[in-house]
Specification:
By secondary structure, the chain is an alpha+beta fold. It is built from two helices and seven strands. Strands 1, 2, 3, 4, 5, 6 and 7 form a seven-stranded mixed sheet that branches. The longest helix is centred in the middle third of the chain and has 18 residues. It is globular and about 45 Å long.
């Protein structure tokens, strides 16, 4: 659930609002059944380590009605990840979904902005990949 904490930190940093334009694990649908514009974070599988470090890979998908707004937002998110988390940091809990906060966290973008092309509504989708590394808790 550390990816939910990343989303909460993004909300705290005024990147967006959870369930409005920041989404967890899927693109939310509007009242017509179309994906809402915004950013959603999706966890990806990674190798399990035996050391005292957990690694969670994630993708940030960016989708807006205007492709120029979308790619600008994607580049802003990449810059945000590079600048905000270049040092060890903490991530907040997001009650009632998770009460766990994380310390000794490092977030590393693992890709630049990539275009995935257009969706069914001819809206461009962009993705940025990253990893969050944090200490295992006992």
């Amino acid at each position: 659930m550390i990816t939910l904490s990343i989303l909460k930190q993004m909300q705290d940093d005024n990147i967006g609002t959870i369930d409005n334009d920041l989404f967890f694990e899927e693109a939310a649908l509007d009242n017509k059944g179309n994906p809402k514009p915004g950013v959603w974070i999706v966890s990806r599988g990674t190798a399990v380590t035996r050391f005292n470090t957990q690694i969670q890979a994630f993708d940030l998908y960016v989708r807006y009605t205007n492709k120029l707004v979308g790619i600008q937002k994607a580049h802003e998110l990449l810059e945000y990840l590079q600048e905000s988390f270049e040092d060890v940091c903490s991530l907040p809990s997001y009650p009632p979904y998770t009460t766990k906060a994380y310390d000794s966290v490092v977030i590393v973008p693992t890709s630049g902005v990539e275009s995935l092309g257009s969706d069914e509504q001819d809206r461009m989708v962009f993705v940025i990949s990253g990893e969050v590394r944090y200490a295992k808790t006992v």
